[in-house]
Design goal:
The chain is about 35% helix and about 30% strand. Helix 4 packs across helix 5 (about 150-165). The protein has one domain: Aminohydrolase, N-terminal nucleophile (Ntn) domain (Glutamine Phosphoribosylpyrophosphate, subunit 1, domain 1), CATH 3.60.20. It starts with a strand and ends with a strand. It is an alpha+beta fold. Strand 8 and strand 9 form a beta hairpin. It is globular. The chain has a 5-stranded antiparallel sheet. A 4-stranded antiparallel sheet has the order 11-2-3-12, covered by helices on one side.
Length: about 180
């Protein structure tokens, strides 16, 4: 029984700037057990930003493996993500990990799953987690119909998701890909 629900993670690329943001809420059953979880991390000399949705331990373990792949492949994000996705799907231990990753560098924005998925979105907006659909919808509308920056779109989309999704709060961590 999966009692742990958490998060909204969203990435937006606009005007050659990519921003990833996430909320800080972790819920178990009907109770919020943490308000300020940090689900966004910078990797590989701060050139890659990763956010996770799902189990915190699993998300952090996957981030560590991604960082090792980035080191091994000298920062080639796409190759590192493909190699991690293959391992994640094939390895008995990794297959049991319950998390999704959003990963971005200056050129790429990808979603990784334990099913072996490495997905590059058609549009420069992608989101995961309990409130991901709400945030993505809001971000797409803002992206298409305003002149807001990527960071402002991420912040406003997270705010809207936090007003709709009971598993998303308004304690945001927002990181810009540098």
């Amino acid at each position: 029984m999966n009692l742990l629900h958490s998060t909204t993670i969203i990435a937006v690329r606009k005007d050659d700037i990519t921003v990833i943001g996430g909320d800080g809420q972790v819920t178990m059953g009907h109770t919020v057990i943490k308000h300020g979880a940090r689900k966004i991390r910078k990797l590989y000399n701060n050139s890659v930003v990763v956010g996770f949705a799902g189990s915190a331990a699993d998300g952090l373990a996957l981030m560590e493996r991604l960082e090792a792949k980035l080191e091994e492949l000298r920062g080639n994000l796409v190759r590192a993500c493909v190699e991690l996705a293959k391992e994640w799907r094939m390895d008995k231990y990794l297959r049991r990990l319950e998390a999704l990753l959003l990963v971005a560098d200056r050129e790429n924005m990808l979603l990784l799953s334990g099913n072996g998925d490495v997905i590059e979105p058609d549009e420069p907006v992608i989101a995961i987690g309990s409130g991901g659909d709400y945030a993505r919808s809001a971000a797409l509308a803002l992206y298409r119909h305003t002149n807001m920056s990527a960071e402002d779109i991420v912040r406003e989309a997270l705010k809207i998701a936090s007003e709709i999704c009971i598993y998303t709060n308004s304690n945001f961590v927002i990181e810009r890909v540098t």
